[in-house]
Amino acid sequence: MSATPAVVRYGSASGRWVILGTVLGSGMAAIDATVVGIALPSIGREFHASLEQLQWVVTSYSLTLAALLLLGGSLGDRWGRRRVYLIGVVWFSLASAACALAGSPAVLIATRSLQGVGAALLTPGSLAILQSSFAGSDRSRAIGAWSGLGGVATAAGPLLGGYLIAAASWRWIFLINVPLGVLVVWVGLRHIPESSDRPPDGPLDVWGAAIAVLTLLCLSYGLIEGPTRGWAAPTVLASLVGGIVGAAVFLAVEHGAENPMLPIAIFKVRQFTVTNAVTFVVYAALGGVLFLLPVQLQVVDGYSPLEAGVSLLPLTVLMLLLSSRSGELAARIGPRLQMSVGPIVIGLGLGLLARSATDAGYVAGVLPGVLVLGLGLAATVAPLTATALGALPDGHAGLASAVNNDVARLGGLVAVAVLPSLAGITGDSYLHPAQLASGFRTATLIAAACCVAAGVLAAFGLRGRPAPAAAPALDQCFHCALEAAPLVSETSST
Q1: Which run of H or of E encompasses 76?
Q2: What's the CA gap between 424 and 152, in Å, rounded?
Q3: Are 492 and 37 in contact (CB under 8 A)?
Q4: 34 C-beta neighbours (distance < 10 Å), count
Q5: DSSP state of 335
Q6: Counting Cβ atoms within 10 Å, is residue 475 exposed (0-12), middle (13-18) or buried (19+)?
Q7: Which listed residue, of 153, 166, 222, 281, carries a Cα 20 to 30 Å from 311's Cα?
Q8: pLDDT digit string (tens) for 414-426?
Q9: Residue 134 DSSP SS3
Q10: pLDDT tens column, 2-56
Q11: CA 162, CA 314: separation in Å to the nearest integer?
């Protein structure tokens, strides 16, 4: 099936419908991502859940999303972007309803993993539809509108989630996806054109996707359960060894695959590899701290769910106001300065957030860290994304962005699994204010040190103005049209 010619114009009624359909669908995932962290204390109290179970509530979603994201983009290119996008919306909506009906932590964890599968289908499709539907002269304006409206949804997520939790129940943060999903399917079937690319000759990389899921599952289990069960426990050791072996097998399979989900050749480009290493470290630090911060604000400082959500709003506002200007500056002077200084500023903001555990109040204890963190993210994210895209030839921009998105999500997944135990937060210690406050301070300082290290890595590893990238041998690789900045970790107010 060949690609449908792009005929939608930006200012037309059909163009507005396409933007609405894609924004609502991606907004479902964005809102859900930002409110789960706010809901964790309520979920923990209702289920009498341990911290490890709350980690799995977050990690199970991130695991399936990260492992299947690249495959989801490839499915849309082959089978129809609208079709796969709407399948993802329906899947995500049904899984959300199942999350809302969960009667135990185990059921919630399982249904969250199903949510991640749906998100892996719809997330790449949202921007791919814009890329393929709009005429070339209108494409950048359509993507800009998508980004701006998506930012509004991201900012509204904590407010809406906090209100729903306070007024009704944490279950409503999942139930709200059902009517949204129905609306997206209606708009999609009536107004979004179908498009696809001529599929490559070889089969889908199903083996690569399956091995990726199993590898991440083994590593996540070992890292989350190790502090509680003991690192020498047979199940923990077997999981960690299985994860390491699985990673080696995955690399071998991708190296020999006819149409690899993750072409290993792209990592021969130094600028691309260094940028993704910085991405991994920065988003790991953010993911770990922003997993713990809403819990810290509610358990230690006595915030309501709504107050915890509102407390992070300045971060999103700063990013919306400054990110485009940061991208323009990086285009003039090169990315190295901002990608070196920005992570250090992020580290300073995370360090300042340690003061939220001192009962100093919002203005003195939380707001300074949130503001500095927002400035650091605004300085870093746009240059980081542009560098990841620009490191590979233009024909592989979608693949470069998809990989960078996936690396960001993997960083958050690993941090949620590891950082709490490194900081001494295990079992039910998150329910005890003194223990949680002490562990949170340690966690923020560890994350801050990681961000400083990422800044140093960028300073020494990146070139100021990279030359145009030579094309790596990717002729047989799919092009996943996921051309967007990586989202802040699923546990955050992204």
Answers
A1: helix 51-79
A2: 36
A3: yes
A4: 31
A5: S
A6: exposed
A7: 281
A8: 898 889 988 888 7
A9: strand
A10: 445 557 777 788 888 888 888 888 888 877 777 888 899 999 999 998 888 998 9
A11: 16
